Amino acid sequence: MRLKYLSLSLLSLSLAACSSHVIKTNPAHSSLDQAQRASKALNAVYEYPSFDYSGQVKVNLAQDQGEKTSTLANPEVRLEPEIERKLNQYLAAQNIKLNTAEKQALYKNVAKKDVASLADVLGKGANFVETMLNDLNIQYDGTVNYRQKMASMNISTEYKKPNLLVAVRVPMVVDFNDYKFYTQIFSLVPYLANPQDQDKYAYFDFSKYKDHFSKVNKQALIEYLKQSSATSYALASQDQLQSLRLTDAERQQGIVEKIRLNSSVEELFLQASLYNTVNREYLMQSVFGVDAAAAEQSAIEALAAQAVAEAAAEPAEDSEDERDEATAAMYKLYEAVNKTVLEISDEEDEIAVAETATAAEDATDAAIAAATDATAGSEEDETASEDEEAESTAGALLTEQQCEDLSKNKSSLRMGDVTYCQDSYDIDVFETVSTPSLLELQLSEKSKALTEKFASLGSKDELVTAQRFKQLWSDHQADIDAILVPKAKRNPFIMDISLDQQGRMVKADYDLKYDLDEFDRKLNVKFDMQFKNYGNASKIDRRILNQAKSFKDIFKGSPMQQVFGAADPTSASPAVDFSEYLNQLAEKLYQQTQSYEKTYKAVFIAKLTHDYPQIVKQYSAQDLQEIAAVYAYAYSDEDIYNLKGQALKQVQALQKKHHLQENEQFDHDMGNDVDEIVVEAMSAQKSMLEMQKLLKQYKTTEAVFAHHYAEKFKEDNELEAAQQAEFKKTVNILGKAYVALKNNKFKDSTIASLTEDSVEFIDYAIFKETYEALSDANLK
């Protein structure tokens, strides 16, 4: 089952349960212990046909006062002096000349981190944004009505300062009668709406998921959610639960008891994760009525079918938004030739494209079958050779213990060992010990093993209750303690549940604190909810919903549509990302050095500095040059860069020195990426020089296109003497078509003088290739 289906099913948890559910309005709870009373209070929301709720959220993001420096205080990313010095040494050694501005650009780009800091996320106004977030008040209220199969939520935000007040209220309603989600979108931007629609709701229709909802076992889903809510209290130790003294104001609200759970983010996360894991099969099959394995296979097949359909339909698409310029130009020419010269209608054209796609698919299937047969025939030989290779290289590679020892003592560290330990054992020899994040906790090897163990304990036919889960938790306490960080380092999560005379939850207060070490910040989130009118909730007005329009209709003709319709996605000037910067750097360096080796080494070191600055700090500038030289030799094609004699012996010695001899010791992504960047830079310059030379010779862009196209065409096709005149006429017209397309002046009349005989000389793939070559050389 896809995640969106699962989410929608969870959203309908009680709305679809409605009147068939047993209502208990006065449960006996005096005999229950503290944890049981808190659990039963939480689950009161499932025991009544309706209720109202409200609450508020308060976020505080504060700088860690223990830190002397802050990312926000120094938003500009700077390269460490040691790394900058090594880069300068390398540039000087390789006689690579960069002016001051180019050097600063290099420093800035390699210093950028892939994981954004708070300043990266919020920009230079990070301090202002942080203050605004802390001063923002968020409130919400709404109604849940099971019998009406409806629920509402109204979110209100307010930012108030002495001379500024900003308040926004966004109402939302979900209706499982008509399977629609409603919201008043123009609460946010009323001035962009049509005047007659400013007070109307817009809706999203999700009725196409109706069949998925109908399969849900509603009673089983409610019981699952009840037991899930009870797990935190069932697992709580006595010292984590306490009764709080009530204030006079709380007594006046009808509160008779207040129970606090002192837990942590890490504990609650792991409890919820393992409870969901142990009940996954039950949830999928007994609650949602879906076979997990069949659903996964079905999803794979659906994605594969979609990919095939998109590939087959691609040539027939009319939109140019998703094509590059050369592809779009090629299809314009193709359509114009079919229409003007061959007089093929659009319908006939679509049929021809479909037939071509089918033929291509059949050819692909045949090729795959042939490749499979060939692979099967050589499998045994390859396996034997791999075994022999493994035996011969086993002694050169490190064990897991040796990798762990390297992380403690880096004095004898070699580049190949860094990559091998990371890829083979997931050991980062540069990693420092720190409190793991939630994501690291979830993905750790021990956590994976424990998750797999709990998954095997579940059953598709029986729900694991909170009490049963408590026993499983106890049985695996040693494994759980090994995963959780020490109690002193956990992030606290406090939950206060207030009960009324009937044992129902009337108030819930949550207080979460989390250390954002990577941002030098401490996050504190406080949110609370109040529940009232159990069984007698406020009515949700259907009359307003009946006047709602779909999102598409409500935007029609409005300033909102005009704003987005007039927006030019190409008008923005986005900052150059690091990959694009490397392309530009490679082009400049190759133009300057005319050397694959020097360009590769420079780009490799720039990328290495950006991706792994800790590695650059570990080695000298000379070591970095040597490592880059080995990578250049290992990942280059022989026809581009092929060492012999003394140069080859030197590289082989460097391979041994830096432990870069075996396949597992290389970072293949790094090596291949840099090679691709350099080869592309070389090709671009070669093509540009060729085009510029042709322009001097043939004087006009049209003539250059015609000559280049003709040469490429003749490489694969033989021409008879009688065809020469028609061929020359065709390539000249294609040259005119190129210029017209580049200047947005192409019309069908541009190629009107072509004949059916001319079409024989039009190869659209060569047209596209020539188009790209001239475009790269800026010829118009």
UniProtKB/TrEMBL annotation:
Residue span of region Disordered: 372-398
Signal peptide: 1-19
Compositional bias per record (Acidic residues), positions renumbered to this chain: 378-391
Keywords: Signal
Protein name in the entry: Lipoprotein
Organism: Acinetobacter defluvii
